[in-house]
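Sequence in, structure out.
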Amino acid sequence: MPELLLELFSEEIPARMQGKAADDLRRMVTDKLVAEGLVYEGAKAFATPRRLALTVHGIPARQPDLKTERRGPKVGAPEAAVQGFLKATGLKSLDEAKIQRDPKGDFYIGLIEKPGRDAIDVLAEILPVIIRTFPWPKSMRWGARSGKPGSLNWVRPLHAITATFGLETEEPDVVKFEVDGIESGQTTYGHRFLAPAPIQVRRFEDYEAKLLAAKVVLDPERRKDAILTDAKQLAFAQGFELVEDQNLLDEVAGLVEWPVVLMGSFEPEFLKTPDEVIRATIRNNQKCFVVRDPKTGKLASKFILVANIEATDGGATIIAGNERVIRARLSDAKFFYETDLKTKLEDRLPKFEQIVFHEKLGTQAARIKRIERLTAEIAPLVGADVGKATRAAHLAKADLLTEVVGEFPEVQGLMGKYYALAQGEDASVASASEEHYKPQGPADRVPTDPVSVAVALADKIDTLVGFWAIDEKPTGSKDPYALRRAALGVIRLIAENALRLSLMKVAGSALAGLSVKPADASKLPSDLLAFFADRLKVQLREQGARHDLVDAVFALGGQDDLLMIVRRVEALGKFLDSDDGKNLLAGTKRASNILAIEEKKDKRSFDGAPDAALYSLAEEKALAKAIGEVKAEASAAVAKEDFAAAMSAMAKLRPPVDAFFDKVRVNDDDPKVRENRLKLLNEIRSATRAVADFSKIQD
């Protein structure tokens, strides 16, 4: 079957746009092909700084013929209706129509045959539309072509379009079309400097090979592999170790078509600046990698750059140019760092009085005071020294006003730690400056130092309560203040550090410290707790656990100890994985369903203790006895927070519940017996609620 080769050759495409653009091109072309009845076998897209390319193989040479039936008017209908039917179906007369019998009468049926078109003609129709409607996040329109103003919006000026279609064993045809004066053809171009001559290509295999010979590595993954391998080998050969950086690797691979890895150096005196500042300087300004000394783990005064050309001087001029820029940038960074060290962190804090955190929540200074107060309350609950924790909260945000963080925002917190240590602060206090922002995502590490944990919890809970108080909650996919991330951070801090604290109480304390109060302040802690429950469900679902069990535990009410909730959910999950758990769940749900039906029918509930004198069957007596024993045993186990023991107690209900439903008729003819048995079913529901609300558990 034929294959399509499409290349859109332009000026340099920003690296950050290339990956999505390649995906968009593949999606748009293949979606159109399928919509036109051209089901393909496979497709792959590529991007370099100067081109988007796509190959689609296994495309049928022709669309299938389409046959559809169209129902027309009744036999004997007015002439106008008949003529409209003939025109719509393309029939010459009613003699070409069929008659279909129907209970409502006989109707004319027209068979419409639409012959398929050659795939190359379909492609010539859809490709220019895709090019004109391509969803670049930013695009431009440039000068006139052939005396006419340009009308195409593209990320950068588009110079050539290659489009061929045909069998592997034959010479392919050009898919002929034109976009803004650019006619499709078979001509592309190699590397801008190393092989700029035009290249004639036929199909993808030929295209990729000729580009490689013209110093263009088409596949971005292949460019990444080459850069990473060469960089590691070059560093190793000099006795160093590459500091890998996946985001930087992705970006650099989008800046070059023919990667050439080189090593430069800078003066060792710059190494007095923290490693992270050096790395940020070199990475942000020159897109270069840093290397470390494997013996000490510290950065070396070397860097690795990726050029896009094989220079005749071996890269000496390129290296010298990068060294010159990096030297100047490191000099600036060193100056910023040394300047910052001259001012103590606490001396910077008054400036926060003029910086607004949020117009409804006051200044950064007010927020820092709230975090300090909340930290002092949380510290004893997490085993932290109150004095150290309060001091840490006082200084944690101060580095936001430093020169280095102003230049490199990504090192906020980390620089606070360095500056705190430099002015003689306790190690735990200093670490909290960096760690109170953590965890910032599901893969980020969770702080374990009690001081850091206390400040991190206070920071996140103050944020959540504050935005809840002014009704700035996440909606749908919008979460501008990262409140979902903050809630997940609180959950992980509590669960992974095995902390015992009441979220309702802490949220209430945070609310008390706010100058703004919500309309109904009493509802805020419970409303926020429901948000935590949703976040906990998301986390459990991502971990492969059953998120419905969170609902079953939260439904009991009064559950705001996240650690206990997690442990109860874990124990419940293990129980429901057992045969006893599955069967007891089925029995409990059966009891709940019967109760729901009968309560609706009688318009009443069946609360209250059953009358033992009305038990006439052994199965009733056995179930009643088991419920009494299990309820006491499970409640005692829950009180001791031994949830595994509580589940084991619940398992004892399974045999009498099974026997009851097997032998006992609930809706007895005697109304008193029926009521008593329904009350006994309610006792089953009541007993299981010692551990969870089984009605919330999905089958």
